[in-house]
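Support reply, case 0932

Customer input (verbatim):
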Amino acid sequence: MPRRHRGDARPGRGRAPSRRRAGRHGLRGRRMRETLARKHHRQQALLRVVSQQRLSTQADVVRALRGAGFAATQATVSRDIVELGLVKVARDGTHAYAPPSAAAPGGGMERLRRFCEDYPVEGALATNLVVLRSLPGTANALAAALDASRLDEAVGTLAGDDTVFIAATNERHARALLGRLTTFGIARKGAK
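Our regenerated output:
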């Protein structure tokens, strides 16, 4: 009986044929490029439909994309919304998805000012933290507006459902930050 070597598929047949590597030029590479191209076209269509239509839920967005000829699920739309940075903005008493540029035409400070006009926000100090409370479901938008404002005193933000923590380097900076935020309409907790 012939001696088997490591890598032989069957005795007496030599080495097993090597599989074609799936790399830059392989089958997987081509499929990856096609998938990325489809994603790019779908996301461009998503930007178009949210600019042209008032879509307030992800289900509305899925229906609009399907109407435009794109197969999409709620999970796909959810990921695309995050990747594109779409935001919900108030339009005629309702909220609808919009491109990030539509949310803050004047930049980060204007975006923060508009948020504070649209929603009640209350602030308090906790050593080097500024704690902001707003309506349920609005904390992420508030934190994004704060981040876009690039406030010098703020080291970073952390958002929950209705609460945002803003870390400052020290208590003095936190106090100054809360004072600065009151100019945007944020009420101090306990202040009358």
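We compared this against your earlier run and they match. Two observations from our side: The longest strand covers residues 154-159. The chain is about 45% helix and 20% strand. Please reopen the case if you see a mismatch on your end.
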